[in-house]
Amino acid sequence: MSAGCVFCKIISRELDADIVYADDQVVAFKDINPAAPVHILIVPRKHIPSLLDIKQEDEALVGHMHTVANEVARAFKIEKNGYRVLINCGSDAGQIVFHLHLHLLGGRPLLQTIAKGKEV
Ligand code: 5GP
Ligand code: ZN
Q: Cα–Cα distance between 44 and 55 in angstroms, integer?
């Protein structure tokens, strides 16, 4: 838990979110400003500020986040048509929440580049 971190507050249920999956390592919830019909954030319970901060000990956790992305994609029935998983790392990538998270996007063709959760 990192004081002032919005995703830590969602994980601790201090802040509301539409949670679609949770286990002992990650929580997944709907993005408040969706860029696609399905836009879910997969967030580790551990506060890691960005991808740049992952350590060797986090490798299994980062792998698990991807397995959960697949599971959520199946739950939302977008696995056959396909989906995109992305991580913004740092300011040039448009990262605004400094708690590591995967964006899972799908539900329509994603032909353009998506940055900051929005198409450009
Ligand atoms: P980033 O640019 O850091 O990769 O993306 C952060 C994402 O978190 C954005 O797509 C934004 O809409 C989403 N977000 C920011 N604050 C909240 C919040 O309080 N609740 C939810 N559900 N999503 C949030
Ligand atoms: Zn946090």
A: 14
**Residues 85 and 103: beta-carbon distance below 8 Å:** yes
- Give the environment of ion ligand 2: residues with CB less than 5 A: 2, 5, 7-8, 47, 99
Ligand nearest to the CA of 45: 2
Return the ligand 1 atom nearest residue 86 CA: 4
pTM of this prediction? 0.94
Rounded to an integer, what distance in angstroms lies between the CA atom of residue 80 and that of residue 51? Answer: 28
- Domains in the chain, start-ordered, CATH in brackets? 6-119 (3.30.428.10)
Best residue among 10, 14, 31 to mutate for probing ligand 1, ranked by most atoms within 8 Å of CB: 31
Task: Render each residue's pLDDT in the chain as its tens digit; 120 residues.
Answer: 788 999 999 999 999 999 999 999 999 999 999 999 999 999 999 999 999 999 999 999 999 999 999 999 999 999 999 999 999 999 999 999 999 999 999 999 997 665 555 554
